[in-house]
Amino acid sequence: MVLQRKFLKEHCLRRVCEKKMFEVADRVKRLPPYLFAEIEKAMKEKKAQGVDLISLSIGDPDLPPPPVVIDALKEEAANLKNHNYSLSQGEPDFREAVAAWCKKRFRVDVSQDEVIALLGSKEGLANIARAFVNAGDCVLVPDPSYPVYNNGSTILNDGIPVPMPLLQENGFKPDLEALNPEKVKMMFLNYPNNPTSATVDKKFLKHAVEFARENNIILCYDNAYSEITFDGYRAPSILEIDGAKDVAVEFHSCSKTFNMTGDRIAFAVGNKQLISGLAKVKSQIDSGPPVYIQKVAAKALESYKSDKPPDFLKKNNRTYAERRDVLVDRLCSMGFMCDKPKATFYVWLNCKSSSIEFATKLLSAGVAVTPGIGFGEHGENYVRFSLTQPKERIVEASKRIAALVGCAVS
Ligand SMILES: Cc1ncc(COP(=O)(O)O)c(C=O)c1O
Predict the structure, then answer these.
(1) Binning pLDDT at 50, 70 and 90, where does residue 289 land?
(2) What b/e sequence results for 113-148 when a residue is b if at least 16 CB atoms lie within 10 Å of its CB, and e otherwise?
(3) CA of 331 to the centre of ligand 1 (A)
(4) CA distances from 278 to 66, 288, 360 (A)
């Protein structure tokens, strides 16, 4: 009896402690599983089985950073003055370089206090909601989209995500007329788009700015792929639109432009009040990107001598365009309907079946792609290919897919 009571006491105490110490917050429980972690796990298992896996799933460039980045990194990291804390909003020379780049690239005037350095644009996209979204505020989130708008930004800040369907028949643009702006505090837009690779013109951006201004909505414009464009297309900035600075903040990243995903450096530009709200949040959470990384990124941005991309970027984009052609031509010859995207390093394929089943089938042949459902309900029946493998591997992946669907490709 005594033993039984002792056991029960210890057992219950342990359960209470576990509950008290380890239960995650409700907002964390509301998060859907992080898709890429699931994919990485499945890929790891395949590799452990000795499968020669071709990974076309995660958007991490295989191309190296340009020499300007590597040279600057050696020099700036070796400078002992570059190892102290930075300022919450970023180094003045970095913000100056960003402002000069915006002027050169988009002919947009921004001052230093309209710029903030970020530890990657993912961090900024999540923290902007922390600065402005109250519990119960609605946030318009494209569906499908980069998962951070829905999860890191909205759910983790107790906001309510309201999906904006991106349909193929609308060029993967949201129908702004159909949206109910009631209780909406913030909206996210992203073009060139991940995962659909859709692009927009300034007419659409003008419409979006008008919508945000009329309804007093904060417009977060994610332009992470502005520099990855092909066939003469140049992605615009939302800040080129009259009145955009009243409501908008634009996010750029060195991750894809300069192949610096692991260096964690990006920036946001736009409405001063929005930038300072973001800086206020960040000053309580992080101390900004390392000074030497900001100096490196400044030098990389300074490699733009006009609105045209520097030579290394032209070369990178030719490589992506060649891979895109290899993949899309082969998918079309297998009977799939697939357009050649004008931007990003993604190909968004309507697989006309369950995206998880299709991706699982491809994985069984050693080709990893991302099932569209992971980007939102309207991503179902699509899969995303990342063009982040050499051409020969994409040719090999195409052959494996052709074998699965019973076609022959060269
Ligand atoms: C649309 C989009 N925005 C932002 C990011 C985040 O990039 P980073 O945090 O490396 O700047 C990504 C990364 O894949 C992305 O696809």
Answers:
(1) very high
(2) ebbbbbbbbbbbbbbbbbbbbeeebbbbbbbbbbbb
(3) 26
(4) 30, 12, 40
346 lines ligand 1 (CB under 6 A): no
pLDDT tens column, 397-407: 999 999 998 87
Which class for 30: exposed (0-12), middle (13-18), buried (19 or more C-beta within 10 A)?
A: middle
Question: Counting beta carbons within 10 angstroms of the beta carbon of residue 50, is it exposed (0 to 12), middle (13 to 18) or buried (19 or more)?
Answer: exposed
Per the CB < 8 A criterion, the answer to whether 243 and 213 are in contact is yes
Instruction: Look up residue 229 and give its DSSP letter.
Output: B
Q: pLDDT of 137-158, one tens digit each?
A: 999 999 999 999 999 999 999 9
Mutate to test the pocket of ligand 1, among 220, 255, 259 (most ligand atoms within 8 A of CB): 255
Q: Is residue 266 within 6 Å of ligand 1 at its C-beta?
A: yes
Q: What are the φ/ψ torsions at residue 318 (nearest 5 degrees)?
A: -65, -40
224 CB under 6 A from ligand 1? yes
User: What's the pTM?
Assistant: 0.93
In ligand 1, the atom with minimum distance to the C-alpha of 145 is 1
Number of residues that make up the chain: 410
Q: 244: Cβ below 6 Å to ligand 1?
A: no
CA distance linking residue 271 with residue 241, whole number of Å: 13
Other CB atoms within a 10 A radius of the CB of residue 354 amount to: 15
Q: How far is CA 308 from CA 37, 245, 256, 303, 378, in A?
A: 37, 24, 17, 10, 35
342 CA to middle of ligand 1, Å? 18
How far apart (Å, rounded) are the C-alpha atoms in residues 267 and 157? 21
Question: For ligand 1, is residue 199 a contact (CB within 6 Å)?
Answer: no
> Is the CB of residue 194 below 6 angstroms from any atom belonging to ligand 1?
yes
Q: How far apart are the first and last CA of the chain?
A: 77
CA pair distance 355, 151, nearest whole angstrom: 21
CB 224 within 8 Å of CB 344: no
